[in-house]
Amino acid sequence: MWGQTVQLRRPVSGFASTHPYYAHLDGIRALAVLSVLLFHLDHSILPGGFIGVDVFFVLSGYLITGVILREIEQGRFSVARFYQRRIARIFPAFAVVIAATYVASLYLYSAQDIASVGTSGAAAALSLINMKLIFQGDYFTISQDAQPLLHYWSLSVEEQFYFLYPLALLWLTKRRILPPLLGAAAVSFACAIVLTYLAKDIAFYTLPTRAWELLGGGALAVWHARREATRRPGLAELGLVGLLLSFLFLGPEHFPGPTAAFPVLATLAILEGSRAEGSRVQRYLAWRPAVAIGLLSYSLYLWHWPIFSFIDYRLFAASAEVRLALKVVLTVVLSVASYFLIERPARRYFNRQGMVRAALLFFVTGVLALSAVGYYLRESHYLGADRGDIAAGGIEAVSGHDRDVLLLGDSQAYMYALQLAELAREEEFNLRVAGMPAGNLLPGEEETVWSDVASMVAREQPDVIVFAYAWGIKIGEHPERLAQAMRHLTSHTGNIVLVQQMPLLSDAVTRQSIREGLRPPFVEPEDRGSKRRSGAAVVDTYASQATIVDVFPIFDGPDGTRVIGEDGRFLYQDAGHLSDSGAALTMPLFEEAIR
């Protein structure tokens, strides 16, 4: 099948001898991308702007199905050539944006968010980021400024679809095409409706619940292949009005289930109604500025979200006007540069005859490189242990020195791991990390790994144990848990460092809330503060047996909790954890205690 050309047994009529270009289709692209950009700039500007992605799906299915069928009719369809064109069209700018996002995240993000970008980048390169995002939550509520590759989910859906779709079409051309496409679309739409109410994240991100939109466009292309263009007065106008109303009034409720039918049907109506020459909507959509935006639409889509995310993340305290201006200017400049310097030259180069192998090699090499760099970013910026790591003796972060330091605890320990590793290299001591996010390490806790911890400590006999824990919620009412642990730990080390918790924040204190106008003082909620103080009181009773590192005063001030550093960075990762910028402020205390 690869590289071979095939001929339809029963030719499909109605195709020209070449692939025609219709300017109004770029106008539809312009509508789609502008709706997405406006939605991401401010949801209130265009509440339903997110459906621009659905418009892209329909248009993509329509155009690519038409191209495939036309080439099959002409006896020159090649699966290898199809993927060559996909690579030439999609991958160069796709790869550059991921690489640029990697680099920018190193300068702008916290270590934990850099690790997340690495994972997302590798998943995006493999066209699997939509599957990763299922486990991160709702598209409309996820912490978007820390997800600069979030928008790649739609590209993953498309690439998964086109992985097998050309072969399916090739097989179907020997039979009747339209009924199977419509049947598959109906099944997909039914799945979307059901899963929207049962598992919305799966419905939003996955191919089985989105395929009907691409198949709808494909079915219309098959319909058009057999029929001459016919004037259908008012249909395109009706579709355009329906699409604009969808942009203005649709919301995330019941999406992408039944409500997704509105923009999909509206787009199909525009495609059908504007097909005949002389259509008013065709003339509107072929307006030169609209066509220019449509030509830039892929670069605009790729670049806008990383730019928006980085600006919101790093300049969260800046005015909305400043952030808006930077977003618009940088998006336009980088998109235009991307189109003229990357998209067009790469497409011309890799689309040439005889470049199939070169294009495939470029693609495979790029995917492997982006995945490897993403994995490296994840591993080099994440030092969280799991149960298997603790059973194996923890993660060896720094080695080759005389003194052994063990970092022990839950996520309260993990948040210090990277900064302690830097300190270990500077002060020349070994660091073993047993900080287990979301883990229970004390005896008597549910699903505790205490037995593994006890065995590890007895086996390793570290010189220093640094123990950081969510004392407030884990020992406030159970002081005996820490007492039992301390009896074991003190018998196997000469120095224990117990780390008190910093002030806890309200969940309302976020970069987004500050962007929306929230200002200091930020005060620790009483319920959280009460639990924290209860745990701190228990820890303080061990002052004669351990060194107590109290980081609380660093972040507690006369104007409330300190959440923004002098360099403008957010000192907290979330309400209960420090970012690496916040953890860095505590290192002098750790250095003194470990000495």
Automatic annotation (TrEMBL):
Q: Say yes or no: keyword Transcription regulation present.
A: no
Gene Ontology molecular-function annotations: acyltransferase activity
Record lineage = Bacteria, Pseudomonadati, Pseudomonadota, Alphaproteobacteria, Sphingomonadales
List, for all copies, the residue spans of the domain called SGNH: 402-591
Question: Do you know which InterPro entries this protein is assigned to?
Answer: Acyl_transf_3_dom (IPR002656), Acyltransferase_3 (IPR050879), SGNH (IPR043968)
Keyword terms, alphabetized = Acyltransferase, Membrane, Transferase, Transmembrane, Transmembrane helix
What sequence ranges are listed for the domain Acyltransferase?
25-338
Q: Which residues cross the membrane?
A: 45-69, 90-108, 177-198, 285-304, 324-342, 354-377
Q: What is this protein called?
A: Acyltransferase family protein
